[in-house]
Amino acid sequence: MDKDRIEAVLKETRSFEPPEAFRLRARVKSEEEYEAEYRRSIEDPEGYWGEIAGELEWFEPWQKVLEWNPPHAKWFTGGKTNVSYNALDRHLATWRRNKAAIVWEGEPGDTRTLTYHELHREVSRFANVLRRLGVKKGDRVTLYMPMIPEAAVAMLACARIGAVHSVVFGGFSASALAERIKDAGSEVLITADGGWRRGQVVPLKEAADEAVRETGIVKHVVVVRRTGQEVPMEPGRDHWYHELVEGVEGEAPPEPMDSEDPLFILYTSGSTGKPKGVLHTTGGYMTYTFHTARTVFDLKDDDTYWCTADVGWITGHSYIVYGPLLNGATVVMYEGAPNHPEPDRFWEIVDKHGVTVLYTAPTAIRAFMRWGEQWPMKHRLDSLRLLGTVGEPINPEAWLWYYRVIGKERCPIVDTWWQTETGGIMITTLPGAHRMKPGFAGKPFFGIAPEIVDGEGNPIREPDQGGYLVITKPWPSMLRTVWGDPERFVNQYWSQYPGKYFTGDGARRDAEGYYLILGRVDDVINISGHRLGTMEVESALVSHPAVAEAAVVARPDPIKGEAIVAFVTPVGDVEPSEALAEELKAHVVKVIGAIARPAEIRFAAALPKTRSGKIMRRLLRQIAAGQEEISGDISTLEDRSVVEQLKKGK
Ligand code: ATP
Ligand code: MG
Predict the structure, then answer these.
(1) pLDDT, tens digit, 9 for 90 and up, residues 249-270
(2) Which regions in the chain score pLDDT beneath 70?
(3) Which ligand is the nearest neighbour of the Cα of 521?
(4) 83-255: same fold as 20-82+264-517?
(5) Residue bearing the CA closest to ligand 1, atom 3
(6) Burial class (CB in 10 A: 0-12, 13-18, 19+), 569
(7) Does residue 5 line the site of ligand 1, with CB under 6 A?
(8) Which superfamily is assigned to 20-82+264-517 in CATH?
(9) Where in the chain are the domains?
(10) 8 Å CB contact between 510 and 493
(11) What are the pLDDT digits (tens) for 472-512?
(12) Taking every annotated instance into account, which residue ranges of this chain make up the domain AMP-binding enzyme C-terminal (predicted)?
């Protein structure tokens, strides 16, 4: 059905070859190498993933690589292993024992480095502490922490003893935390007195206390001393981390985990609705993050890798903690804001620690563009060799800025599409193998079988046709269920197109097999029977020099069905005006065509975003429709005052 397709109209034709110097040293060096390995991974997934998993250590071998009873997959059934053992102990017998595992920098500028040997000791001590507090295999432990090494230590300690961690982003409110503690049924909470953000203390313990009171189920609260202010400690319930670990033995036998035993629960960002408690298990998640981390980020032993996400997001789980440490990489971890004390903090960190691989988000890149080139220009940035992005579609303008100003046209960019539910990167270019096309995420990773379907689930085979992105084969790190809500797991992901995983995103594929993500299916706009993805209209707006950021939504329209309302944040010194609004409408028509002409442009100082930096178009939709009261879950909204300002702006 044609009407169920999403139009794909943006004509972005620029493309970039991987730099020769990069290609020569890369893990995957050519399109042909990629194709051959991809073919093998699809034709013989069990052979392929068995081989990769076999590079890691298993206490007992698996009997079967894959059992697939749609929508339920089991990987490496019968196999016994432990993720913490593979991320730490496995390296201790090698020269990596004294290699830096975590290079941490606090916002005030304090630093700490933990070698693999030291990290192993800290994790083992804390694992012993958790055991003494009565935590057993299968128990859920909630983490509510700043970006300090103890966050990674606590995750790995849980993994070591078979406890299921649920990390809640430290920027969330007490009630958001309480809701997640209750949903997971956690009796143990690990937090800190506070964390640093823009020179201020984020009072984590205060929020934690409030949440604990609200839940009534938490028996132990472990508190890391980070910011040092006075915090109330309830005797019997609250324990200082440093007191608990003192004198505790630095060896803790890892719990042998069944491959399908739960590893963690993580709640999604809530861009489209109420967050879902996504459950990941042991063997498949370990194997997939291990393989994607080294392949997509081309990790070598001399790399210094920095992912700027928070451990509270899936990106932090898979590509700060598990993936890189499974590979024995050196990981940079930073506590604070990108613009503290000045908008060049990231670039200062890159130079100071000699970062070679940098992984960040489009929302950050667009903020850096707004702050101006003068900030990165103050730094050398010559250690960088590879850049990455994740979280939202990256507009070609932002891609080109990242490529030119940060990467100096020397560093390939990987635009990695994936989700909390997928556990690891699904669609990307491989940096030494593929030509890059700004705006396109790229090709499927090994073993991943994406498809674009129409409203009835029929595959759309012709190129450049927008539709719904689904995945047709199971992969090792796919979510196993929604915690406590197996029906939602089936309804949300597997009922639209039986047997296929529904991503919730729209996409199109070009003649060379590159995927472009068009945005959320929920956000698709329907104008006179044409269904438009949000990404292309927004990219057209962002390509105008006066625009820093844009979000488009639909408003009901008596004639066209829907009309486009564009919320636009101008660049620093540009004054909004009626003339500029007209100019922007004309610009969109020029770039895409008359069909995409916004009916209305609204200028806004800021857009509503989730705490992970994604634009929440569902709120903008309500504002555009003139709704007085905003409905739906807004617990993950970053700044509530933005919504009030947007409503007043009209
Ligand atoms: P919820 O599912 O609760 O609405 P969410 O989808 O924002 O929240 P995440 O799992 O953090 O939660 O985000 C995954 C989504 O982020 C993807 O479905 C996609 O829409 C978007 N995304 C991530 N990376 C990319 C990328 N490289 N290009 C385009 N979109 C991306
Ligand atoms: Mg989602």
Answers:
(1) 999 999 999 999 999 999 998 8
(2) 1-3, 10-12, 649-650
(3) 1
(4) yes
(5) 270
(6) buried
(7) no
(8) ANL, N-terminal domain (3.40.50.12780)
(9) 20-82+264-517, 83-255, 524-647
(10) no
(11) 999 999 999 999 999 999 999 999 999 999 999 999 999 99
(12) 536-614
